[in-house]
Amino acid sequence: MQQYDLQGQPYGTRNAILNTEARTVEAEVLSRRCVIMRLADFSYAKYQKALRQSAGAVVIILPKNMSAMPQDIVQQFMELEPEMLATETIVPVYFAMEDDELLSIYTQTLTSSSSQGSLSAAEVLLHTATANGFQMITSGAQSKAVNDWAITSLEGRLAGVGGEDLPTIVVVAHYDSFGVAPWLSYGADSNGSGVSMLLELARLFSKLYTYKRTHAGYNLLFFVSGGGKFNYQGTKRWLEDNLDHTDSSLLQDNVAFVLCLDTLGNGDSLHLHVSKPPKEGTPQYSLLKELEMVSSSQYPELKFSMTHKKINLADDMLAWEHERFGIRRLPAFTLSHLPSHRLAQRSSIMDVRSVSPSSRYGVGEPPAGPHVDVKKLSRNTKVVAEALARVIYNLTEKGAPGDLQIFSEQMQVQEEQLSAVVDWLTAQPRAAQLVDKDSSVVSTLEYHLGRYLKDVKKHYVKADKRDPEFVFYDQLKQTMNAYRVKPAIFDLLLAVCIAAYLGVMYLAIQNFGLLYSVVRRITQPKTKAH
């Protein structure tokens, strides 16, 4: 389970060591026991029962194919993940993928735990003494803080043509994922879809900027941020570096707007989240209108709307990434198919990519929970690309119709490319605690950005050792061994039986000796005296 500190507030479990006997939540006594639960039977009430009874640990068994789980179970668990993280506990909490051996352990433990309720006290004692049990033991060490972890972000640019003080459009997407367990956080929709869209936009506009005829008078700056799920730490440091610690930066000059891409791989609606509604005549307002026009004229089934929410500086966590830019007075907004930042699928281990190829392309039953529909991701990418192009080339003022498609034929959005990037991103967990500066995720992102953009750079952020905004911990993945054992009462009962046996044997031997003496006296012939 997650273990981290953010703004001085601890989240998740505070312990990692496990060496206790297994029980299921159906058992009467859970104190100092390892409570095993299946996801299908999991509830927050059962989880709280284990914590209240001071369980030695909790192990939640997840199905191999989480996308095949019933929708109600998936939705319930997604909504419980934030509550589990918000409940600080010293009880180690682990998640394990089911297999035959683990299910066998669970079944035997469940039978042992649940059968005791209908038995008499003597029968319970006998059952407890004779039943097989399992001792669950982890092989790792206690978790400790990682003090020098670096969160990596990347930037690249396409320079405009036609002057020095050109306006700059910034496109942003965070690449890290989040869920109750870091090693199970794959972030397919949030935010694999956003990164996939950013890379496709970089590819399309790099082609346009290659030709003199379509080389526009806008600088395009692409930023793939790290630490997005931890209050956008990578973006915060990038802004500080560009606005406070340098004299020359595109962010200091003429920023038209910042467009953040977040969770765009599904749905039939697009929401432009803003902290301040754009004023008429500004580039932000132009993008808003172009998104409306492209959506309504080219994709009537797509519902586009603007969602206004002020920045609440009193909250520990910002709602959307554009708020980081808004705090620094840069015009910014976030585009998402989600109507609210509070929806559970933004931060869930259920946001996975493990679906069949037919489901990916809109054939067959879609999986439960968050997932990426490549056709809808491709459509959303096309909408964003067309709207950006209409702003950059000022097509509306030039009289271009709303149904004009710039990205078609040789310049069309490539579904296969989008799908391949999402597949690659979700092939490994991308929790911020797992992606270091030498990670293959970072190096591959750097390679793809370098194919399309110029001046690709890495940016790093480490927590301040004196007053850290975030603290990560190690031991996020451990090997757990299950040993088949007899309960302690079995040893006690065995000792009593052995003692009783020895006592009986001792008495039998003593009684036999006494009986022998009596018989001998009776049968011994009497001697006559002379």
Describe the structure in your own words.
- The chain has 530 residues and is an alpha/beta fold.
- The protein is built from 13 helices and 18 strands.
- Strands 14-13-15-12-10-11-9-16 form an eight-stranded mixed beta sheet. A six-stranded mixed beta sheet has the order 6-5-4-3-7-18. Strands 2-1-17-8 form a four-stranded antiparallel beta sheet.
- The chain is elongated, with a radius of gyration of 32 Å.
- The chain starts with a strand and ends in a 7-residue tail after the last helix.
Work out the helix count. 13
Radius of gyration: 32 Å
Beta-sheet strand percentage? 15-25%
Number of strands: 18
Largest β-sheet summary: 8 strands, mixed
Membrane topology: Single-pass membrane protein
Subcellular location: Endoplasmic reticulum membrane
Pfam families: Peptidase_M28
GO cellular component, one term: endoplasmic reticulum membrane
Brief overview:
It contains 13 helices and 18 strands.
Keyphrases for this structure?
6-stranded mixed sheet, transmembrane helix, 530 residues, single chain, endoplasmic reticulum, alpha/beta, membrane, elongated, transmembrane, glycoprotein
Question: Secondary structure elements and their pairing?
Answer:
Blueprint: E1 3-6, E2 9-12, E3 19-24, E4 33-38, H1 44-52, E5 57-62, H2 71-86, E6 93-97, H3 100-114, H4 121-130, E7 133-138, E8 145-146, E9 150-158, E10 168-174, H5 188-208, E11 219-225, H6 233-243, E12 255-261, E13 269-274, H7 283-298, E14 303-308, H8 322-327, E15 332-336, H9 357-360, H10 374-392, H11 415-425, H12 440-452, E16 454-462, E17 470-473, E18 480-485, H13 488-523
